[in-house]
Amino acid sequence: MEDARTAAASVSPLPAVGEAVRLHELHRSLSRLGWRLALLSLSLLLLAVAGGYAAQAMNLLPPGSALWLALCSAAMLLLFGLLCLLLRLTIGREVLAALCAAEAGLRHADAESRRRACLVELTARLQQAQSPAELARQLLSGLAHSLSIQQGLCCYWDEASQSLQAAARYGADGADAAQVLVRQPELAPLLLEVARSRRAITLTQPGARYLRISSGLGDAEPAELLIHPIEHRGRLFGLLELASLQPLGDAAGLLIQEIVPVFAMCLDILQRAERSETLLEQTRMAEAMRQTAPQAGGGAA
């Protein structure tokens, strides 16, 4: 769990930010250079025309040669301007492509940083749980806070009975988590199918057949329904069902994939602690019964 925090802290978008800023400055510099070259070309043309007419007025050039000089100067400057424009367009296109790539990298780094921050926050939430039920509630509330989730359900897998037990809900209609499956009978077979196959499924526009997202303002059909198995090291711990009014996206799926092993490890620790506490309590009760048995026998004698 500490590794997740370390990995999250190591992600920084600063290099991408610096690269994007440098490319923006380069693009602005090329734009300013283009305008300066255009003004320089116009100034040289005017200077050549003025010099030609001045030389002709001073009888330094034959009559009519000033016009030819102006035309030649204009042609040369036009060619020079076209070459500069072509160079600017070529370099500018490369700079724009690099700028787009840098901005895409910046967006990716920002999304990665936010995802890592959400992972650290969720890990801290899970570490504070004191029971499996509280752990499930912390997971659903944390995912709802980090993602655009309007409804969620967390179920634990009972290996002995090969069945799912609802542990916690978020935003679902029902007094408790168990009533969610009762009020949504079409959802239970789908959850059981995912549990047995251990493969996550995503349903786009599933319709009201499986569930409807309810709130104080009414209810609506979800845009996306995600059912993800909670599995770690070959053992199935449960299922996670999430419904949203808009597509969750790849970043949300990656966050869920990363938090599921953390959740499974926390759940395994809590379940082991509960089993140890149960065994300890049974041992205490057996010891108390052994101590009271001789006393009861002595009293009867």
UniProtKB/TrEMBL annotation:
Pfam families: GAF_2
InterPro entries, alphabetized: GAF, GAF-like_dom_sf
Stretches that traverse the bilayer: 33-54, 66-87
Swiss-Prot/TrEMBL keywords: Membrane, Transmembrane, Transmembrane helix
Name of the protein described by the UniProt record: GAF domain-containing protein
Entry keyword Transmembrane: yes
Record organism: Malikia spinosa
Sequence ranges assigned to domain GAF in this UniProt record: 129-247
